[in-house]
Design goal:
The chain has 180 residues and is mainly alpha-helical. It has six helices and two strands; from the N terminus they run ααααβαβα. Helix 1 crosses helix 4 (64-94).
């Protein structure tokens, strides 16, 4: 098991990413929903629930430059994670372990990243927070296979048990995502 903590606050610019930071600063924009909130002086829109006021109080960023800095650093942290995962997969292939490996790539939560003038995960259930990557590679799986039904983190344990050829001894929620 490999756990990668990034990207989590406090963000920093990873060493060696200075040129990439400059590139991102040239092209990074702020979300349309941030600009809309800013035009309303960060008051919630008529179609937003009252709880949005609390979200913005605790997880709001009101200065556009601060939000841009946040988004650039977050993107660089994601690129660093991508690089680390790439190195891990490359090493598994070099060692001859990749083809027989079960690899599950998941995230514990998403990130608002400035949308609706909020950052982090907070306590809300916007799709930005609950929709996360969930990729499983097992021996013999076909690259690009997609499970079209909704999946859940609960499916991870069932999938790993199935890949190991094991059945749970007690009731276990979730379903295996491996082809049957």
């Amino acid at each position: 098991q490999v756990d990668i903590f990034d990207p989590h606050q406090p963000f920093s610019i990873p060493a060696g990413f200075e040129e990439r930071e400059k590139e991102l600063r040239r092209v990074m924009t702020l979300p349309a929903s941030y600009e809309q909130a800013r035009q309303r002086d960060f008051r919630r829109a008529a179609d937003e629930p009252e709880i949005v006021d609390i979200y913005r109080k605790y997880w709001g960023i009101y200065d556009p430059q601060t939000l841009l800095d946040y988004r650039v650093a977050y993107a660089l942290q994601m690129e660093l994670v991508d690089r680390v995962i790439g190195l891990l997969l490359q090493e598994l292939k070099r060692l001859g372990l990749y083809d027989d490996a079960v690899i599950a790539f998941i995230s514990d939560h998403g990130e608002m990243n400035g949308r609706r003038a909020t950052v982090d995960k907070g306590v809300y259930l916007f799709p930005d927070i609950v929709r996360v990557p969930f990729v499983v590679k097992s021996p013999g799986s076909k690259p690009g296979s997609i499970v079209k039904e909704s999946v859940s983190l609960l499916d991870l344990s069932r999938t790993l048990l199935d890949a190991a050829g094991l059945s749970p001894e007690a009731k276990l929620d979730g379903v295996s995502l491996l082809p049957q």
